[in-house]
C-alpha cells in the first residue's frame, strides 16, 4: 500500500508519505515528513532574555546606568522587562550562561559620547573602533558578564 496525506498545520504544509513495507510475515508503516511550502515571515526579534544572579544590581545597571525604561518587574522581582526601541530586554533571576555565548548589539546615536559616559562611570570598556561592515562600536560586559556591544552606523 502506498499513499499520501497532506496536513495543514498553521501556515506550514506537511506532506506525509505512508508506505507499507513488507518484511517476511511482518508489515509496518513508514511515515516520512516533507515540507511542501514554508510560508512564514519572521518580522523582528521581539525580545532577548538574560539570566542574572543579582536582580537588584542588574535592574540598577539597565535602568539607571543605561537609562532603559522598565516595563515590568523591578529590583525585587524574579522577572523584569525593559523597552529597547520596541524590543524587550528581559532579565530573569537565575544562573547566567557561560561566557562566550554571544552578545547583544544596541544601536545608539553617538558611540563616542556613550563610551565617554561609561568610562566616566568607571566601567572597563574597549576603545570604540570602526568596522569594515560600516559601524563604529565598542564592547563591555554587564554585571553578570553578558557581552554588550554599542554601535552606530557610519559611512565607510
CATH domain topology of the largest domain: 2,3-Dihydroxybiphenyl 1,2-Dioxygenase, domain 1
> What spatial form do the alpha-carbon principal axes imply?
globular
Task: Please state the second-level CATH architecture of the largest domain.
Answer: Roll
Quote the average pLDDT: 78
Overall CATH class of the largest domain = Alpha Beta
Q: Roughly what percent helix?
A: 10-25%
Instruction: Report low-confidence residues grouped into runs of 5 or more.
Output: 1-37
Termini separation: 63 Å
What is the number of E strands? Answer: 11
As a whole number of angstroms, the C-alpha radius of gyration is 24 Å
Tally of contiguous helical segments: 2
Please describe the biggest sheet, giving its number of strands, its sense, and whether it closes into a barrel. 4 strands, mixed
The SSE order reads EEEEHEEEEHEEE
Which percent range describes the beta-strand content? over 45%
Give the tally of structural domains.
Answer: 3
Q: CATH superfamily assignment of the largest domain? A: 2,3-Dihydroxybiphenyl 1,2-Dioxygenase, domain 1
Strand order of the largest sheet: 4-7-6-5
Structural class: mainly beta
Amino acid at each position: 500500500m502506498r499513499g499520501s496525506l497532506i496536513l495543514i498545520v498553521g501556515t506550514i504544509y506537511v506532506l506525509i508519505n505512508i508506505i507499507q513495507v513488507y518484511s517476511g510475515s511482518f508489515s509496518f508503516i513508514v511515515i516520512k515528513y516533507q515540507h511542501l511550502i514554508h510560508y512564514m515571515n519572521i518580522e523582528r526579534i521581539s525580545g532577548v532574555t538574560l539570566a542574572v544572579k543579582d536582580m537588584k544590581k542588574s535592574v540598577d545597571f539597565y535602568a539607571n546606568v543605561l537609562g532603559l525604561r522598565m516595563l515590568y518587574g523591578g529590583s525585587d522581582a524574579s522577572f523584569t522587562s525593559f523597552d529597547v526601541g520596541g524590543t524587550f530586554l528581559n532579565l530573569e533571576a537565575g544562573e547566567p550562561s557561560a561566557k562566550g555565548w554571544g552578545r547583544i548589539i544596541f544601536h545608539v546615536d553617538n558611540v563616542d559620547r556613550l563610551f565617554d559616559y561609561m568610562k566616566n562611570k568607571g566601567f572597563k570598556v574597549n576603545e570604540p573602533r570602526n568596522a569594515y561592515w560600516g559601524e563604529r562600536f565598542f564592547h563591555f560586559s554587564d554585571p553578570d558578564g553578558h557581552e554588550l556591544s554599542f554601535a552606530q552606523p557610519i559611512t565607510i
